[in-house]
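Lab notebook: predicted structure, single chain.

Context: the supervisor wants predicted structures on file for every construct in the current expression panel, including those that have not yet been purified. This is the next one on the list. No modifications to the sequence; it matches the entry in the shared construct table.
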Amino acid sequence: MTPARLLRRLVLLDEGEAPALLWSTFYFFLLLFGFYLLRPVREAIGIARGADKLPWLMTGTLLAMVLVNPAFATLVSKLPRRRFIPLTYRGFALCMLAFFLAFRFLPHHGGAALGYGFYIWLSVFNLFVVSVFWGLMTDVWSEVQGKRLFGFIATGGTLGAIAGAALTGLLTKGFALGALRVKVDPLSLLLLSALTLELAVQCVRRLATIFQLGHVAHGEREPGPGPLEGLRLIATSRYLQLICIYMLLFTITSTFLYLQQGSIVERSFVGTAARTTAFARIDLYVNVLTLLTQVFLTGRLLTRLGIPVVLSILPVLTLGGFGALLVWPTFGVMALVQVLRRGLHYAVDRPAREILYIPLGPEERYKSKPFIDTFVYRGGDLLGVWAPTVLVALAIPVGLAALGCSGLWLGSSLALGRRAGKAG
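Prediction complete. Output recorded below exactly as produced.
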């Protein structure tokens, strides 16, 4: 069977779409591969002086978003897409090189301040590069194409995340190459990640040629000159406000589930090794479910069920999951809920959420969307991580609060689905 025929078996592909589809998929692979090379480094830095510092690091990340979003909006307002997207990635690559030099040559590797700065920067980097990627995807593909193809494009990110995490473990742990023992300094991964960003830039250039993106700012389908237009649109658009609410409740419920997971694993397993194995098992099943769903089901679900129905799948699952955990707070139930929720989020919910931007204009895609994907997303993280402290003070069980948030999320998904039907 030829590669083209195999691709048609996996994807609902129309004539002439294959080259752009493969470049888009490889582009997303590179972004997630580069991030997952560095994610373990970030996590190690985050807990180096105690896990109690994580809420403060999330607070710092949210404040960084306040600074980065206007700067990015200004860049978008001055340059065409085929220029500001590569410049964004190359700017992040230069930051990686600067961190590498600082860690390498400053006394004590820059100390805790540099480490925490890197943690915050990488948290900003992850959300921004992915948001820009999906902004371009919603720009160059139509809604009909998005329903068919976004699931397969998302497999690039899944495979990149798996490959990046696996390679980081292999290189930092060390491996035998003949008579040699090869082991890489974790800091060197910054250089490799910077290289993946440059390769991603080449994918953007190829896609710009395929889709004939313009060279002039403020032209047809290019963002306008107003750097604050994205915020104004959020303030005046009920549609964008519903996307904000949907995103906020998704991240809050994710944090609640993460906290319950930690508590259940802690009392279900003894010792770091057993707990690490439990977490690894969950991650393995999530990746398997995500890949299988992305390859075989996502395009068909989005095409046949439609965006309004698909948007409600994860809130319904989350509501049922938190209800089950109230009755049976066991590792088996928690693991099942986590695997289904995370797997279907990456495979189905995320592509559906990105399709919401296709009927909108360039201002919403490149100015409103990054704000929602970064500031609103991290805002939900912040609320979720500090909420247990408030709930304990008010004598409100976290499980009941999680059920309430899940119900609100389901309501917002239904309202957003109705709006999406009208927008499409």
